[in-house]
Amino acid sequence: xxxxxxxxxxxxxxxxxxxxxxxxxxxxxxxxxxxxxxxxxxxxxxxxxxxxxxxxxxxxxxxxxxxxxxxxxxxxxxxxxxxxxxxxxxxxxxxxxxxxxxxxxxxxxxxxxxxxxxxxxxxxxxxxxxxxxxxxxxxxxxxxxxxxxxxxxxxxxxxxxxxxxxxxxxxxxxxxxxxxxxxxxxxxxxxxxxxxxxxxxxxxxxxxxxxxxxxxxxxxxxxxxxxxxxxxxxxxxxxxxxxxxxxxxxxxxxxxxxxxxxxxxxxxxxxxxxx
Length: 275
What we know:
- It is a single chain.
- This protein has 3 helices and 13 strands; from the N terminus they run H-H-E-E-H-E-E-E-E-E-E-E-E-E-E-E.
- The protein is of the alpha+beta class.
- It has one domain.
- The strands form 4 sheets. It has a 5-stranded antiparallel β-sheet with strand order 3-4-5-6-7, covered by helices on one side.
């Protein structure tokens, strides 16, 4: 009899959760999962933005290094001995600059730097030319003009030309170098490439620069500096920032579509134009 009462007493207190308790537990669990997912997504987006930012910075540094080397070399002319005075060093007179049919130069003009303004706000074209004096100078693609082991005086007047353009479909900055291999990409994620040219002027006895776009340059033989603007775009569409206004290379407002964009500018003085 005693055991029977104990069993009935135990069964009286053995019961599960009520419906309300189950609903509360499920709600708390869902809130924890949602918070965890939100934290994961935020971390993933932040990681993607940081990765994009680092990659664009590296692309810009590498691109400006290539551009800077070529631009600063513009107009470089070889040195040689005078045929009448062996002790006298003179500049080569064989450097002709760009093909006049390409640049529109008239007879006697030497363009060591030249550009084309992009139509309808398209990216610009930049051309750079100088003499390769010893066969070891590299173009924008890392190629040299030296094709044999012999580099005699007759070959010292070869012109090193580089042309920079943008493939807007692939968003690549391309360069056509000294060889006939054609243009090849040197930077990815390039949306815009704008170039302005500094012409040296004297106003009131003061030496100063006036920068022009390619279509307004008054004298291509007097370019003293070049300013390059590059607009890069990231790969991950996870950077929505409402109210963020990004100004592009042409002063335009760039669409805020969640893709990271960075605009870089660099000004180079033409070292050989100062001679």
